[in-house]
Amino acid sequence: MDSLMPDYPAAIFFDWDGTLVDTLPGLLKAHNHVRQHFSLPLWDEHEFYRQMTLSSRELYPMIYGAQSDEAIKILRTFLEQHLIEFLNPLPHAETLLRHLNVAGIPLGVVSNKRHEFILREISHLGWGVYLQAQAGAGYAAQDKPSGAPIRKALAAINIDPQRDIVWFVGDTETDMLAAKDSGCLPVLILHGKSRPELVEKHNPAYVFEDCRDLLTVFLP
């Protein structure tokens, strides 16, 4: 992409799960561990995607009511024990981050996964050298789909989406909503999933098949 093009980003921020790493099967297992504890029907993948439009800290009080604190504790304990076991980088994700970093584009991650867990996963992969900003659930007063955590993470590296062009890359409706609410350009990444309903509903600025497809835009 020509740096003189109108949409050339001053920074690129990413969602985490389903965008740069594949931890979703493990997260489904973790949430079903909680549901099994409370003798509730287990989620299949479709129901998991439908429910997880909010962070667990915002969703669980709606599902578990007065038992939400206990449910969150069970979830966190399970994830603390299995977090790295579930961590699988998506193809070409590190190559993408490395290239953009070398190109001098500030990068960050904003996720609805617990903030401490995000920092731990990024550290385990050694990707902190690429990511100037790292934010998980609880980092801001609200989580995605609010744009608050994106704006706060951008402000920490002196980027203003009202002044600067910023891409927010994600794979879900939550990401598209958060991008728009924060003032960023919403960028949808598919990773093998056909998402015509998201394209039609949210009209992302760009749609990419995967990390390699996104990378080609920035190659000479």
UniProtKB/TrEMBL annotation:
Keywords: Hydrolase. The keyword Chaperone does not apply. Pathway: Organic acid metabolism; glycolate biosynthesis; glycolate from 2-phosphoglycolate: step 1/1. Pfam families: HAD_2. It catalyses: 2-phosphoglycolate + H2O = glycolate + phosphate. Gene3D superfamilies: 1.10.150.730, HAD superfamily/HAD-like. Its EC number is 3.1.3.18. GO terms for cellular component: cytosol. GO terms for biological process: DNA repair. One of its GO terms (molecular function) is phosphoglycolate phosphatase activity. Belongs to the HAD-like hydrolase superfamily. CbbY/CbbZ/Gph/YieH family. PANTHER family: PHOSPHOGLYCOLATE PHOSPHATASE. This is phosphoglycolate phosphatase. It comes from Micavibrio aeruginosavorus.
